[in-house]
Input
Amino acid sequence: MKIGIAGAGIAGLTAAYRLSQAGHEVTLFEKENTLGGLASSIDFAGTKIDRIYRHIFKSDLHIVNLIDELGLSEKMLWLESKMGWFRDGKLYPFTTPLDILSFKPLPFIDRVKVGLMAVYLTKVNNWKKYEEITAKTWVEKYVGKKVYEVIWGALLEQKFGERAKEVAMTWLYGRIHSRIAGREKGGAKEVLGYMDGSYQLLIDKMETEIVKNKGTIKRGVAVNKVIVENSKATGFSTHEGEFKFDKVIVTAAPAILRKLVEFPKAYDARFDKLNYYGAVVMLVRMKKQLTPYYWINMGVKDSPFVAMIEHTNFIDKKYYGGDRVLYLGKYLSTEDALYKMPNDELKKIFFDYLKKVAPAFDEKEVLEMHIYREPFSQPIVPLHFSEIKLDYQTPIENLYSANMSQIYPEDRGMSYSVMLGNEVAKKINTSF
Ligand SMILES: Cc1cc2nc3c(=O)[nH]c(=O)nc-3n(C[C@H](O)[C@H](O)[C@H](O)COP(=O)(O)OP(=O)(O)OC[C@H]3O[C@@H](n4cnc5c(N)ncnc54)[C@H](O)[C@@H]3O)c2cc1C
Output
């Protein structure tokens, strides 16, 4: 069978790998010149680094198993990480249960409740009931308004801005579940995974396997249209011409899929509710360590970035010629002024605030800086999301969809994009 796939992020690459492995004639189209989508890397300090900060959890079995299958397990670095919380002009440790019990911005009883809530949610296996209630209402009702304001509200606003109040409890449940499950027994340590050489190793290996399986990869070729004949998808239209296929998969975000093809009206209406937030990520190379933490949550409303990630507090600086690596990240609407502003203005805003968190920061010591804007970064998960979530098979015969919004009730992550690729491939394999 001839299969066309649009989008060479982790989901598209996995689907192409699986389907080519099963003997199908696969062509993968990527609009960018590089593969990997959100997980792609750049040349940096004599090695590769992910454009956007990333780590995996031990519980991320879809990607852990794929890495193993591709013979890359020995490249995995599983290391302890330290988390901090910035609030009221101070940095607090926020990794272990003891850190949380000592977290001064909350009254003691609320600190205990934060721990109990996490333990409770990891024991519950029925996520369906959390579709009925927003995370804000649930936390305020069962754990308390103060805990919402200081911890979960701050986190939700970091991810979803003013839309935080719409987010279903299912999202918070999914996130806490995977995060705690990824911890060592007892929950005291957080061990995270990174690839020696960046996740580019995984992307390159999948590319090699696809080509070995006689697949074709077309870089810099966007799919402009899904060709539909007699209500069946029969190919893709691109600037290189039309390509005919027996089955096609689109792994791009719902807003892109919607533009590629005309769906029946009722189905098309679902896309109005399949919204994403964008992200701005700054990557900095410098000489100085700023804090002892890998990941700092900015628990304050006035910070222009929501997370400060000192990558070299997780991965040894020796991998970057002794330099330090910092990411600053912000989730936001693509209509937000910060998303649209020129890089110079954004840099000034980020760096001015960074000095408040880490007075040791000196812009003159910055050796290299990159800014990335990603319009489709975080699906927004409203109440009753299972009623609008897309299936792999669309109403158009032979057209399949596999994008991050289809990851549910878990929160999106590379491992679940591997799952999307595996599952959409399985659907196609069993449909013959
Ligand atoms: C700020 C941020 C931090 C993250 N941190 C982590 C982390 O620490 N750990 C983790 O596991 N995950 C993390 N993630 C999530 C992870 O990056 C994603 O889950 C995963 O990379 C998504 O892969 P995908 O293939 O589903 O989508 P994408 O990577 O978005 O791939 C879609 C691809 O389709 C291409 N495309 C779009 N339109 C077309 C078209 N018309 N024709 C052809 N190609 C097209 C795009 O260029 C892109 O390459 C993070 C995400 C963000 C935004």
